[in-house]
Design a protein that fits this description.
Strand 4 and strand 5 form a beta hairpin. It is built from nine helices and six strands; from the N terminus they run H-E-H-E-E-H-E-E-H-E-H-H-H-H-H. The protein folds into two domains: 140 residues, Conserved hypothetical protein from pyrococcus furiosus pfu- 392566-001, ParB domain (Alpha-Beta Complex), CATH 3.90.1530; 132 residues, no CATH class. By secondary structure, it is of the alpha/beta class. It has a six-stranded mixed β-sheet with strand order 1-3-5-4-6-2. 51% of the residues lie in helices and 13% in strands.
Length: 290
Amino acid sequence: MNLDFFNDDKLTQVENDYNFARRKARFEAIFSAFGWKNTGLFSLYEVTALIRPISETYKGVHPIAIDHIIGSENRYMDFSYDFMPKNDHLKSRWKHLDLVLKKNEEFPPISVYEINGWYFVRDGNHRVSVAKINGVKYIDAEIVVLNSMIKISPDMTIPELKKKAVNYERNRFLQQYTPSYIPMGDIVFTGVGSYADLVQHILVHKYFANEKLNYELTFEEGAKSWYINVYKPILDAIREEKLLSDFPGHTEGDVYLYLVKRWDEDKKENIEISAKQTAEKIKKEHKKKK
């Protein structure tokens, strides 16, 4: 790009802006290393995988507060949590946009997703970065709202958001099924989607149990039968093999889901294999790794 028509003063300002932004990004990386703040922008895909939006709504073009932009769809690795450039391959476009702004030209609207009043950039990451370094407070954005019951905030970490999502799913399960008929203290998960898996396990067990009966089990009856005939025997195998020690940070419920998945795979090769035998195989595999 030919920049001869810009005077030396503007070129110097742009160079200084970029160098300041890069220094700021390096300082933010140091602060992040001490755990004082999130290490970077939120990844849209990582967040939506946890909060599982139930719908989306097109909102149109509106000015949004730049300080409420906390993530990106695909450039979250390129910018710091404050949208400062982390890599020099961004330099050319970044400086070009800074020059455009210094000519008092308006940027076209950026494109964002909105989740609970916070924004994730779909297109326009460089424009946000340049606007921030120039003290711009608001920027026009084309907004698509992702609706979710799980609230997010910029000071949350991904593990904290995951925990919040899992707690929400557990509470929903408890509210929907009021499962006082099975000991939920023994059934705790740490993975997003696990309580939906639990419902599916109960329904599948109920389906096969119904085939042997001349009446249909209720969900409560199916859940009781699943706990006695499926979950408890597998839980006993997990405890007998001390499998939980091989899965640090997880619960017996997590190990149950993993074991059932492995058992299903094992049955493709040996239909007669038991859950206990699969548990023994998993234990042997972990012993070899140690």
